[in-house]
Design brief:
- By secondary structure, the chain is mainly alpha-helical.
- Helix content is 41%, strand content 5%.
- The protein has helices at 27-39, 50-57, 63-75, 79-83, 129-141, 158-173, 185-198, 203-210, 215-219, 229-232; strands spanning 90-91, 98-102, 121-125.
- Strands 1-2-3 form a three-stranded antiparallel beta sheet.
Length: 240
């Protein structure tokens, strides 16, 4: 079985609609950069690139499953934050649609606790028009009209993990595998952060969207760019 490889001229065929393609990103270069960082033993979070995400999404068989993972990819939500989403958390009529996420990361008592007055709610803009349309269609399909309607009513967060594992197995049967391992729901959050950085979004904004209390938590993603320094800042240590 050959691993999934990004082909620039085939990127548009990996998704249902070619408008998903982000031409500003050189995916071949991004793939080579990631593989080099991993080969060098970097502690870089495991993330997938844009075409890999959309290739994987095709193996989720129904609307409810696919929409959950599209939400993780488009918002950077942690799994428990996504599962807590209600109809009223989406604002789709504004000039810039957005979603409100409740920061639900498990923290130890003490220094990691939220400060008084911090509501733990963060706002993430929804910049992909096709995802916004998918939200509208999802809400209409499942007749979610009340603001307190939960988007997913699951007994356990193991259920979406099982959905993802089944999708990976279906992909593998088609000969589609990924060099990133393991792939979990949290991989979509890492992929969201990296996609923003690769698209030129300032790191402080990425920090806010991800709900990181400290900038250091966001800076870990920039390790993948360290090996680019030699190309952009060549320094000669021998000849003047």
């Amino acid at each position: 079985m050959k691993p999934f490889v990004i082909q620039p001229d085939h990127v548009g065929t990996l998704v249902a609609e070619p408008l998903y393609v982000t031409p500003a990103i050189d995916f071949q270069q991004a793939l080579a950069r990631r593989e080099l960082a991993l080969a060098c033993g970097s502690e870089l979070p495991r993330y997938l690139l844009f075409p890999e995400i959309h290739a994987l999404l095709r193996y989720l068989p129904d609307l409810r499953q696919q929409f959950l993972f599209r939400t993780l990819w488009n918002t950077g939500a942690r799994l428990n934050e996504a599962l807590a989403l209600r109809r009223g958390d989406f604002c789709l009529d504004a000039g810039t649609p957005f979603v409100k996420l409740r920061t639900l990361k498990q923290r130890n008592r003490g220094a990691g606790r939220r400060k008084q007055g911090d509501t733990g709610i963060r706002t993430v803009p929804l910049t992909d028009h096709q995802y916004v349309r998918a939200v509208q269609e999802f809400l209409a399909t499942f007749d979610m009209t009340r603001n307190d309607d939960l988007l997913w009513t699951l007994k356990s967060d193991n259920t979406p993990r099982n959905w993802l594992n089944a999708a990976l197995a279906r992909a593998e049967r088609d000969g589609v595998t990924f060099t990133v391992d393991p792939i979990t729901p949290h991989t979509f959050r890492h992929s969201f952060c990296m996609h923003l950085l690769l698209s030129g979004v300032p790191i402080k904004l990425v920090q806010k969207y991800a709900g990181h209390a400290r900038l250091e938590s966001t800076e870990i993603y920039t390790q993948v760019f360290l090996l680019d320094a030699a190309r952009h800042y060549p320094v000669n240590f021998t000849d003047l």
